[in-house]
Amino acid sequence: MSGPRVNSFFLGNSSGVNFSVILSPGDEETGKLQLANCSGSERASDWNLDVTPGVNTSKVTVSLTRNLELCLPNATDCCPSPLCVLETLQVLACHGSVRLAQLLIQVEIFANSSFAGNVSENATIIPNQAFQPLGSCPCNLTAGACDVRCCCDLECTPDLKQLFNGSCFTEVFGGDVNPPFDQLCSSQSMEYTPEWFPFLCVQSSLDNTPFLGYFYHGSISTPKVPAFTIPLQTSPGRLFTGYRQGDPIITEEDEYFTIPQQSLAGHCVGNAPVAYLQDFDVKCLTSLESYKEGLPHHVRINTGTADFIQQNVTYRTITDRGKFITESESLHPAEALCQNVTFAEHYAFTCKDKNIEQVNVTVFLGSLCDGETLTQRFTVEFLSSKSTNGEQLLENPGYQVGKAVRAANINASDPLGTLNIWQPAGRGLCASATYTPVLFGVDSYSGCVLEVGINEDCSLLRGNVTEKLNSLIHATHIGKRDNSSHSDPDDWVEIIRLDPFISDTNVSTGNLKGFCPDIPANLNIQIMFAEVGAVQGIPQQQILAVQISYSTVLWQFQCGLSCGNSLSFLPITASVQFIKVPAQPPVRKTRYYRIYVEFDCNQNDVCLQQLFYPVTRFYTGEPYSQCLAKGLLLAFLVLLAVIMSNPWFSKLWNR
């Protein structure tokens, strides 16, 4: 233990159990600890013991009450040395005089260090790197060693330089950080020099070159936290201004509020944080040997304004275990080991704006025996405090990637609809396949296998396949947004259905058995969406149109040496494609382009169009007033030269 507080858990029923903390000094000769008894209390010297009871788990907290600041002269209640506390504690759980559990804590706490001296007010001025010359030797990349082929490296001795004297790095990287640039009047490096180059060339020293800030980008970018790390949260002393969508929910002890969730690998992670305004429904497999209790339900949750609320927990008992027990190795006799565990947990967060107002938890308990496999279910939903019918709360009304697409049957008694794809299991037969909802932004492709006999009627086969495909879609409309209301028809778009194409070719099934053309075996779902705005920087995505079409195949019975009365398999598939519509029509491509490189000032160092650049506001080398004065003076001299070069001026001058 190296901090002022430590937490532990007591497993089992804590009713009638007395907890105590005892300061246990060691024997000076042998170093052994003294044997503690159950006569202690919840306070020992500077230590306090707090116990928070639960259902089958009790949280035990041991905290230090003394000051950990380093002593100043003539001060008390402080730490006389940097090693402030070096003690041994024993925490006992007793039922009467019987010791049930014992916890040994070795404490080693150092004093809080702080700077107590005079701070100089002379601030270090960091020059703007955009206007500073490049480093004198950019190829010097290794400190304390000679870099090969870097002749400007001062750490290279003359003997080492002889090894690569003829192969040194050249140009800027090799140390020539101020080379003559093409715009200099004295530079003759240009292959083609225009006739007007002497009039536009630059007279400047090499200290003022285009290579100033050569490796400087000029923009400040905020550091991005890698995806595999968790950003630090607000400390307890700082003001908490509410949750945003996607922020992890924080507990009273500045820790994440965690519920088991599925990872990208498919297995469940027990300490996954719960994100604000993100619902989920996960299932996790566990057994009695690997079962672990989750976060205790007495943990208080930060509402978003530094206040804390308690969870409202309701316990229920599971009567039908068949929905959760997915595998049993053998029948368990009456004396088999069983334990009362959590089968499912449902969390309902009632929110308003950026704050959490209430948390209702429903825990379903049941008996799990040794050898059985349990499918635990954890669900989280966020509800609006303004709604009276339990409507979900969505800070961003648009769809987010991974959310289920909403479907409805408009003008029906039951407006709730479904849009699913198959989730095959076992042999992949359509008869045993289950359904999974279509997720927004996730292109999907799934299918199942239909058993077909050799004497199958083609018309009946087409009808059977069409019925299987239509079972995926029990809806007439799709919600434009994730918060589409069933009472507002403008919040929904009608599904465009294209019937499968059936050719006019009449094939006699009596002559050709096991051969059927135009079987609508493929269902194509195309969803068009666009970004219509943003809420707090998160794009708001809206569905514009939905189209359903069919692709037909030619089915032919497949058999081996003899067909007999065997069955053949017909795979039928369903695909979902999301098509993003740009906000503006893309530029139409043409086959002919005219390149204006010669007149493009961004691609030429010397540009005739920038003849008067020094007198424009884009030139920042000198104050604008001086540039304007010099420009007017130059214009006056040019005008005077033109006037004096006129013949009538010479005649007037001679007179």
TrEMBL record:
Keywords: Cilium biogenesis/degradation, Glycoprotein, Membrane, Signal, Transmembrane, Transmembrane helix. Part of the tectonic-like complex (also named B9 complex). It comes from Piprites chloris. The keyword Iron-sulfur does not apply. The chain crosses the membrane at residues 631-649. InterPro entries: TCTN1-3, TCTN1-3_dom, TCTN1-3_N. Belongs to the tectonic family. GO terms for cellular component: MKS complex. Residues 241-384, 398-581 form the Tectonic-1-3 domain. It holds the Pfam family TCTN_DUF1619. GO terms for biological process: cilium assembly; protein localization to ciliary transition zone; smoothened signaling pathway. It comes from the Eukaryota. This is TECT2 protein. Residues 113-221 form the Tectonic-1-3 N-terminal domain.
